[in-house]
Amino acid sequence: MSLINNNDNQSCYMALMSMAEEFRTQTPPDMRSCVQCLLASLNVSTHPAIEAKTHLHLGNILLHFTTNLDKSQSHLEKAWYLSQSVPNCEELMLESASLLAMVYEKKNEIQMSKQILTKAIEESQHWIFWHSRLLFQLAQIHANEKEYLLASNILSIGADYANMSGAHYTRILFLLSKGMTLMIDRRLTEVHPVLSLAGQLVETWNGNLQMKEALKVYFLVLQVCHHLNAGQVKSVKPCLKLLQQSIQSITAYHSEDDYVNVNPNDMFIWMPREHMCVLVYLVTVLHSMQAGYMDKAQKYTEKALMQIDKLKAVGNHPMLNTFQLLLLEHIAMCRLVMGNRTLAIKETVQALQICYGDPKLKIRHKPLIHALLGMYAMSMNLMDAAEAQLATALRTPSACTELRVMTSLNLAIVYLRNKREKELNDLLAKLNPETLPSVSQSLKAAAFYVLGLNSFFQSRYNDAKRYLRETLKMANGEDLNRLTSCSLVLLGHIFYSSGNSRESMNMVTPAMQLASKIPDIHVQLWATALLKDLYGQFGEQSRQQEAIQMHHSFSQMLINDHYQASQLPEHNYIHMANGEDLNRLTSCSLVLLGHIFYSSGNSRESMNMVTPAMQLASKIPDIHVQLWATALLKDLYGQFGESSRQQEAIQMHHSFSQMLINDHYQASQLPEHNYIHWFDSPDAE
């Protein structure tokens, strides 16, 4: 009888697992039914190893396809504890630990995540793949917590372990990841030897060709970023060209199935190749922007954003949000240079909305978004708002050194335009190019330019020329076209003010040519203002008329764009320097985006928008957004099979609805309510 029961149990279990797999792999996947089958299989008496594996599957699905982290944690903890007591379940145990660490990290239980990974690393010494994977995961958590020294030490351990284990591809990945961590931590003297060793190993590695090209892309991306961080726009060109060639080689491969003859311990892909394409577009945008090729930056941004939209339609990987955010931030800066403030403020606010969908992104990018709002306000001649935004960016702890310098330089210009001499002098004392905390050549050149601009406004023309020549020397050395054009037109203005019209013309003419190439509408406006007077002095009437027309055209473009930008709802964000003041606009935008995604059938993306909208609305509190959000959440939780959360959302929605109905009735009974029917003041009657 016992044998028959065992056979029946096994048949029942296999049937449920087959159904679960069928639901999981159908198009579109039916994860709710899949989970129900897996849960049902737990009621069938099976071997503890099979039970542990079922809990692992459930935890994995709940982690990746629902927002119910508590249930995912419960199943993964059961898998973790069961697998430790069953022989020959080491891989199951290690996978459970890896997934459980992800759950703890998502719940912000960072210490728990570190503890279970440390324990699993101790248990995985003889499992090369899992030991390496767990080391990568622990290093990532330390890096996310800005514990870069610990992260780089773990990556060093991983590189040594992979080398001793014969996993040479994985060793290179550890070294490249260490190089990236050192760059983030600004331990720049240690970066070069690590990247040099990694580069040599990439060249001599004789493994799978597609994996080798992927390693080259990783290495070259780090090389390009290392040069760009130092403001070496010209020096980076050979690396950037090699990077673009490597990504073309990778995209020539037909599928991910090209991974053949690969060491099973080297089965790591640092980034999917579709994401690599976006990353190469992104670093090309960064280079184009620093070099002053705004049209090129705009072209590659559009290509990258189109690629991101395609990838998001398949699955919204968190890395795509980071790429999209970086692209929006940088293209917004390009738009300001090109005089398109209307698009700049829209893209800045779009970046802000992405931040509010991910708390970590919000912390990391908040200072840059405030700086962007400040620069936008500067372009709109709203200096008080600009000062408030830039000051907020500087007060934000997560602002990096380069951003602080860039923001301070812009704030110095605000003080200069507002004639705030004391604040300006105090700030300029910290912006001495010789002692600047940044290694960036472009920021040092920009600091010389701001000093030159200040000297010009004080009519200290010799000092101004000295500073601007330093800017030109550095800018010409690294092809920093925008700084070159700004310096040339300012030098032209100085010579014009000194009565040296010939020398002024020699400066303004190339400034205008460069500004047209960028294009930089502000330098073009400035240059044509000088040229129309200079051509008049030299009696060149046809050229003078041409300059007058061009100046009028640039002026009208800026006036029209100024008006259009000022009418946008996004324009109001400049008056909200305190991050908390942004919450209402952000919550409204997020819940509307959530509704749009819901109407389009994209429930997962809808949930990603509505959840933070609800959190923000509760914090304000804004009952209208709460009502709207709970109306969506009750349907979304229903779709995801989260019955308890669905009931909670239904109750909350009913509560908010009743509060508004009751308040509506009470307000309508008040004598003051009748004032809404008066079109003049009561005294007018």
Automatic annotation (TrEMBL):
Main location: nucleus
Sorted UniProt keywords: Cell cycle, Cell division, Chromosome partition, Mitosis, Nucleus, TPR repeat
Name of the protein this chain belongs to: MAU2 chromatid cohesion factor homolog
Gene Ontology annotations for the cellular component aspect, listed alphabetically: nucleoplasm
GO BP terms: cell division; chromosome segregation; mitotic sister chromatid cohesion
Classification via Pfam families: Cohesin_load (PF10345)
Listed InterPro entries: MAU2 (IPR019440), TPR-like_helical_dom_sf (IPR011990)
Subcellular location: Nucleus, Nucleoplasm
Domain of life: Eukaryota
Family as reported in the entry's similarity comment: Belongs to the SCC4/mau-2 family.
Described purpose of this protein according to its UniProt entry: Required for association of the cohesin complex with chromatin during interphase. Plays a role in sister chromatid cohesion and normal progression through prometaphase.
